[in-house]
Design brief:
Bound molecules: nicotinamide-adenine-dinucleotide, zinc ion
Oligomer: single chain
Helix content: 25-40%
Order of helices and strands: EEEHEEHEHEHHEHEHEHEHEHEHEHHE
Distance between the termini: 10 Å
Largest sheet: 7 strands, mixed
Radius of gyration: 20 Å
CATH architecture of the largest domain: Alpha-Beta Complex
CATH class of the largest domain: Alpha Beta
Number of domains: 2
C-alpha cells in the first residue's frame, strides 16, 4: 500500500509499505477513505517530537471502513464506517477510568507517533472498540475527519481548560485549524469577546467570518498593547495558545488578566520562559493538555445537529498519490490559503 513516511527531520516521502495486519485481539484494520494533515505533523517534521522515529507512517486523523477485526472485537464489524480518534484508549487502565485517555497505559497519542498512522491506504488501530466511533447514518465523512483531532483539541485543551464562560473575554493566539476549532467551540459558551491573533491576514479574515469579535496581526510586536486596549487595560479571562512556539506562549502571559487562565494547546519543542515575577500575584492558572477526546461523542452530536459546521475548515482536497503537494499547500498556508486539506485514499 502507499503511505506517507517520516524519514527524520525535514524528510518525508510517499513509499510502498506492506498492508498492516492484526497483531492483538482488540485491533482493527481500517481502510482509509479520508485523512488529513495536522500542525503536529509539521512539528514532527521539524524534529520537535522525540517519540516519533524515522520510518513512521504519519497521520492521526481520518475516517474509513473496517477491513478486518481481531478475535476480541465484538461491537465493530467488517464494512462498518468509522471515525478514527487521534487518541487510542483501552478503557480499562487507571488513566482511562479517570477519563484521561491521552495517558492510556497502552494507548494515548500513538497513531502516527509511536505506531504507524493514517496517511496510508490502511491503518491498524489498537483498542478498536474504544478508539473508533461508528459514523451516524448520513454523516458527512469530511466533516467527521474534523472530529478525529481538531474539534476535540480546540474544545478540551482550549475552551474547557480555559474555562470560557458566558460574557467572558477570550484571546486565541494562532488562527490555524486548531485555533479556529477553539473559536468555533468557544461560541457554545457565549463569551462576550473573542480576539483572534495571528501573523496571517487571510486567516484572521476567516476568523472574523467564524465569529471572532476582534482580530490582531501580531507581526508589529504590539499585540499585547492592542489586547489591553480592547479589554480596558484588564487583559483577557482566557488566553489560548494555539501555535506551539515560545513567542506565543510569552504573549499569552502578557495578555492574561487577573484571575484568568492561560490554556496551552500548542506542541512545544523549545524551552519557554515563565514570568512568575509578574504572574505570581495575578491569581492565574496555566493549563496544558494532550487532547483526551472525551468530548468526541458530544461534539459529534453538535456537528450532526449543525450547531457546529466543521466543513468550513476544509479548503483543499488531494488524492493520496499527491499527498506531498498537500503537505506543501498546508505548510505554506499564507500563500495557498490552506486550512484543513482532505486527502482521499
Ligand atoms: N495539545 C494537543 O493535544 C494538540 C493536538 C493537536 C494539535 N496541537 C498543536 O496545536 C498547534 C496548532 O495546530 P494547527 O494545526 O492549527 O497548526 P498550524 O501550523 O496550521 O497553525 C498555526 C498558526 O499559528 C500562526 N503563527 C505562527 N507563528 C506565530 C506567531 N509568532 N504569532 C502569531 N501567530 C503565529 C500561523 O500563522 C498559523 O496560522 C500546533 O502546535 C499543534 O502541534 C496540539
Ligand atoms: Zn493533530
Ligand atoms: Zn487505557
Amino acid at each position: 500500500m502507499k503511505a506517507l513516511v517520516y524519514h527524520g527531520p525535514g524528510q518525508k516521502s510517499l513509499d510502498e509499505r506492506p498492508k498492516p495486519e492484526i497483531q492483538a485481539p482488540g485491533d482493527a484494520i481500517v481502510r482509509i477513505l479520508k485523512t488529513t494533515i495536522c500542525g503536529t505533523d509539521l512539528h514532527i517534521l521539524r524534529g520537535d517530537v522525540e517519540t516519533c522515529a524515522p520510518g513512521r507512517i504519519l497521520g492521526h486523523e481520518g475516517v474509513g471502513v473496517i477491513d478486518a477485526v481481531g478475535s476480541g472485537v465484538t461491537t465493530l464489524h467488517v464494512g462498518d464506517h468509522v471515525l478514527i480518534s487521534c487518541i487510542s484508549s483501552c478503557g480499562k487502565c487507571e488513566y482511562c477510568r479517570r477519563g484521561m485517555f491521552s495517558h492510556c497505559a497502552t494507548g494515548g497519542w500513538i497513531l502516527g507517533n509511536s505506531i504507524d498512522g493514517t496517511q496510508a491506504e490502511f491503518v491498524r488501530t489498537p483498542h478498536a472498540e474504544t478508539s473508533l466511533y461508528p459514523l451516524p447514518d448520513g454523516a458527512d465523512e469530511e466533516a467527521m475527519v474534523m472530529l478525529s483531532d481538531i474539534l476535540p483539541t480546540g474544545f478540551e485543551c482550549g475552551v474547557l481548560n480555559g474555562k470560557v464562560a458566558p460574557g467572558s473575554s477570550v484571546a486565541i493566539v494562532g488562527a490555524g485549524p486548531i485555533g479556529l476549532a477553539a473559536l468555533l467551540t468557544a461560541q457554545l459558551y457565549s463569551p462576550a469577546q473573542i480576539i483572534m491573533i495571528d501573523l496571517d491576514n487571510a486567516r484572521l479574515e476567516i476568523a472574523r467570518q467564524f465569529g471572532a469579535t476582534d482580530t490582531i496581526n501580531s507581526a508589529d510586536g504590539d499585540a499585547a498593547g492592542r489586547v489591553m486596549e480592547l479589554t480596558a487595560g484588564r487583559g483577557v479571562d482566557t488566553a489560548i495558545e494555539a501555535v506551539g512556539v515560545a513567542a506565543t506562549f510569552l504573549l499569552c502571559q502578557d495578555i492574561v488578566g487577573a484571575g484568568g487562565v492561560v490554556a496551552n494547546i500548542g506542541v512545544h519543542g523549545q524551552v519557554v520562559e515563565l514570568h512568575l515575577e509578574r504572574l505570581w500575584s495575578k491569581n492565574i492558572a496555566i493549563t496544558t493538555r494532550l487532547v483526551d477526546t472525551v468530548s468526541t461523542p458530544m461534539l459529534l452530536k453538535t456537528v450532526q445537529s449543525k450547531k457546529i459546521d466543521p466543513l468550513r475548515l476544509i479548503t483543499h482536497r488531494f488524492p493520496l498519490d499527491r499527498i506531498l503537494e498537500a503537505y506543501d499547500a498546508f505548510e505554506h498556508a499564507a500563500d495557498t490559503g490552506a486550512l484543513k486539506v482532505i486527502i482521499e485514499a
